[in-house]
Design goal:
Helices cover 34% and strands 17% of the residues. By secondary structure, the protein is α/β, with parallel strands linked by helices. It has two domains: 26-230, 2-enoyl-CoA Hydratase, Chain A, domain 1 (Alpha-Beta Complex), CATH 3.90.226; 253-460, 2-enoyl-CoA Hydratase, Chain A, domain 1 (Alpha-Beta Complex), CATH 3.90.226.10.
Amino acid sequence: MNDKKNQKTDEKKGAEKKTPQLENRSPREVLAAIRKQLDKAPAGSSHGGLDSAAQQLEHLLDSGSFLEFEPLVDQKEPNNEEQLPERLLTGTGTINGRQVTVAGLPDFDRRQLSHSTAEKLTRLFERAREFETPIILMLNSASIGEKHDISDLSAWARSFKTIVKNSPQIPIISLFFKPISQFTSLFSPLSDFVIGLEKNFTEKTARPELDLLLDSPGQIIETAIKILNYLPDTSSSLPFVLKGKAPGLSSDPGELVPLNKSQPYDVLKLIETVVDEDSFLELQPRFARNLCTGLARIDGRALGILANQPKKLAGGLNPAGAEKALRFIELCEKFNLPLLRLVDQPGLLDETSEPEVVPYYRMGKLFKALSQFSGSITTVITRKAYNLSFLLFGNRFHRSDFTLAWPEAEIGPANLEKAPNDESDYYQYADPWEAARQGLIDDIIEPQETRDKIATFLKLNPHSR
């Protein structure tokens, strides 16, 4: 018995020798030792020097602008002979002079998923709301590790609840540098934008809420900075207006659209003739490819673009496309982004794998979202707007503040293939002039006028709030 006591005493003394106690050093010496260890960021090389949260934050923020919050949370008394594990980095800094709030989550395989770490993230989101700044999350953990108990998980539940509470007010951008796990997947639906490394995802794991998959951590960070430029600081403020640029593609947009209505074309090229040079950023390009969604600027003003893609399914709208459009419209609503719709849609597509009522239920949700959209909507009918597609996207009386059509546009209640052969009936079904005469559209314009018309309307009516 005494031998065991002596053994424990010797072990305790040995531990004291390895880790000097506070009474052996002055408070300033302890602080200096702690700072020395905190400054030892884990080295990284597997991702070109951007595989730790510290390195990623350094690449994201303006040089010297990072101010860390609560670096001592979960840190033990310093030992000069050991390196502290990577910690949850939280703080604030600037990107091109604009203040943001940031968090770099470490790899929890190497660190306990503690309740104090969860509470630290909770406090960061509360600060972001108080500061009225966007928040960028850098996720470096593929799992939650094994060292946690029920109190730790409960603290993380409170943290996620705080994220949900604050998400309507501030932009949240999540960057995934590891594969999405059960734990990190919870951040995905709570974020406004989700970007990941392509090599970490397959077709099955590349879920709809993933906005972009990119090749390198550097591309992820640069794209996050670009996304931030389109967004206001909060949902109650307006996007910033920058100096406008000429379009990157100077072609007449009408020349890009074949006169043969059944011939496909790439709507992305058409978009480049309308928006400022290098300003268009497509979102969710791998999901529902028959519909194109993205952010851009026209004459320096940020906006969202919703366009049919004739290269896929002739641009027809299916349930997956409706889901993609719905999420994008909600995004534009939250951040007060005006919406531009480029319509070339033969109609709504059924999917035989689903009950007949399901596609139209999703279309109904899309109709509701458009009806409730509070920002300005500009619509340009480039080629086709038939049946319910005209009801959803081309009708001036269904949430389109400014509706234009090109001369070759076909507008009507039926596909021309089913229209009567009589020439007078043809124009009744398809002629944009009849729609203009009835006041269903605002004007018929030459394709090369499209950008100027949109820019003028946005300048006079940037939003409806």
